[in-house]
Backbone:
């Protein structure tokens, strides 16, 4: 956003480019500033492409998004879903649900706990060390 402010000095956020943060971007996004909307939705494009690749490789059924960018809500999420479908070569993508999580800071811990709850043998599996004799 700061780099974009240098290229567009007439942009509303450009007057205080050093003060740009997610809060100021969110305000401009909510006010439907065209350049800000383009910027935020571009992040959704990249996330949608990445999710499309992961689903195609790992056959993921559900993706829960967490973090600061989820503040951009339904418009942002809809763009992620649309890009995900457009970039997918896998018809099983129709069975994949993408949503914004509600767990906050506990999401990572709960996700890791769920992995172990589904297969506790991970706790007892020894990791193989790489052979360093070469």
Residues:
């Amino acid at each position: 956003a700061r780099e974009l402010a240098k290229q567009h000095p007439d942009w509303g956020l450009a007057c205080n480019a050093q003060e740009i943060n997610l809060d100021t971007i969110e305000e401009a996004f909510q006010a439907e500033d065209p350049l800000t909307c383009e910027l935020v939705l571009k992040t959704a494009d990249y996330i949608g492409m990445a999710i499309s690749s992961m689903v195609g490789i790992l056959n993921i059924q559900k993706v829960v998004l967490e973090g600061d960018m989820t503040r951009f809500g339904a418009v942002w999420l809809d763009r992620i879903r649309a890009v995900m479908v457009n970039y997918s070569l896998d018809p099983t993508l129709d069975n994949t649900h993408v949503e914004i999580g509600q767990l906050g800071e506990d999401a990572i811990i709960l996700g890791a706990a769920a992995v172990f709850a589904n297969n506790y043998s991970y706790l007892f599996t020894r990791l193989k060390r790489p052979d360093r004799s070469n």
